[in-house]
Fold this sequence. Notes:
By secondary structure, this protein is an all-alpha fold. Helix content is 48%, strand content 0%.
Amino acid sequence: MKFFAGLLLGLLIVPFGAYLYFTGGSAPVATTDSDMPFEKYFAQKAQHARIAKDMPKNVPIQPTEANYVAGAELYKQHCAVCHGLPLSPKSGIATGMYPKPPLLLEGKGVTDDEPGESYWKIFNGFRLTGMPGFSKSLSETQMWQMALLVANADKLPSSAKAVLVAPPTPAPAANAPTPATSPTPAPPK
Length: 189
């Protein structure tokens, strides 16, 4: 009887202690805080299991120069601010993120990942990391173009590399004045 009472008490104390840990302000939530115990281990285990279960096995587009160039343009537009560009310093956004976003085009990056794995990451994103899912803002073809780009970052054609190192073209400001046009004459009174 004492065993069951101790077991029941233990089953109540552990969740209550976890509740107090999170609601009492002790949990590390700032990007400058250290990891929670086993945080990285469990997050990676869950991530790898989910991706292995759900990622597409077949790539519906070919790894052509045109697809690499299109992927490079999309990467510069949507990914470079966090994941970086070749020969460029880290952005302030990337420096302040936790977990640190991987550099996808330098070193090993994700070139050992299958394109389907990269596609899954682009499509879905990751909770609590800053990595958005692009399924609502990019087409399937665009997401595959970026997946092929990062999966083959170590063997890109020179045309795609040139896009990645070219200075970005500034986008027009949202509140920029519209070009002047001749005024419309007022209707006669």
